[in-house]
Write a structure and sequence with these properties.
Elements (H helix, E strand, L loop, with lengths): L3 E2 L2 E2 L2 E4 L2 H4 L8 E6 L33 H15 E11 L4 H10 L3 E9 L14 E8 L17 E3 L17 H11 L5 E4 L6 H8 L3 E6 L2 H11 L7
Parallel strand pairs: 3-10, 4-5, 4-9, 6-8, 9-10
Antiparallel strand pairs: 1-2, 5-7, 6-7
Helix pairs in contact: 2-3, 4-5
Bound molecules: S-adenosylmethionine.
């Protein structure tokens, strides 16, 4: 039987605004949060981003207006910190352009940054007069710097990860899917089988799919109905790829 936390049951994905749903999760109940929040860079889902066929990209990606991004970020990170268990940790993805807001949100929530990881991928959006961005920042933060899960899998685990984005030839996808390999690495280091993993900004649901495959429980939110349906289908093995 599924365990429930207040109105939410584990291994379930909920459609709705993370800012409304996060406050309804009981405090201290989540072991790990892995999330790639919206970017506030006027991201266009249907653009031929990352060399993909535009017609295969699911439309509707919800952006946060630039002027609201600081408040939005502070609010959700504060709630994320509240729902983490005393030994809980969180991985937050960020592009370089809004990194300042994420770092300020982490400080305002009283979380401790353990590592500032760099994810290097194999291609970016074509540019004419500037360098092509081909990296992401991942902030690994914890509630209690003395007590948190860290399974030291490699002898020398470095903070720069080179992991390719996935090509989904001829298939439907959301525009910003994280590689499964990347999420798998995070789960291996920072969670154990049976732990509860939350992603409040699901997109295509990669975090939920990989958590499920790796024997972790999951919970997730997504505000765009089509994306939420797509994420549910991916978890059920009826869409996407693992
Ligand atoms: C960068 S994407 C996540 C991509 C995801 N990690 C994946 O692998 O597919 C961010 C997602 O957050 C969703 N979103 C934006 N605002 C939201 C909100 N207030 N509550 C919940 N989801 C939101 C967007 O629609 C988008 O799907």
């Amino acid at each position: 039987m599924k365990r429930c936390l207040g109105k939410f049951c584990e291994d379930t994905l909920y459609e709705g605004d993370a800012l409304t749903l996060l406050p309804e999760i009981p405090g201290g109940s989540i072991d790990l949060i892995v999330t790639d929040p919206p970017f506030a860079i006027d991201f266009k889902a249907h653009r031929l981003n990352y060399n993909r066929t535009g017609s295969n990209v699911l439309e509707g990606y919800q952006e946060v207006p630039e002027a609201e991004y600081g408040d939005f970020t502070r609010q959700w990170i504060l709630e994320a910190a509240r729902v983490l268990s005393p030994t809980g940790s969180m991985y937050i993805f960020s592009g370089w352009n809004r990194l300042r807001d994420i770092l300020e949100g982490i400080d305002a929530a009283g979380l401790t940054t353990v590592n500032h990881l760099i994810w290097k991928y194999q291609f970016g959006v074509f540019t004419k007069k500037k360098y092509v961005t081909s990296h992401y920042h991942i902030l690994f933060v914890v509630k209690d710097p003395k007590h948190y899960t860290f399974n030291k899998i490699d002898h020398y685990p470095e903070d720069v990860w080179v992991i390719n984005r996935e090509y989904w030839k001829g298939r439907k996808k959301t525009p910003t899917k994280l590689p499964s390999e990347l999420v798998k690495k995070i789960l291996a280091y920072s969670s154990n089988p049976g732990d509860l993993v939350l992603d409040p900004f699901l997109g295509s649901g990669t975090v939920a799919v990989v958590a499920h495959d790796e024997g972790r429980h999951f919970l997730g939110f997504e505000v765009v109905p089509d994306y939420c349906d797509f994420a549910r289908a991916c978890v059920a093995g009826k869409a996407g790829k693992r």
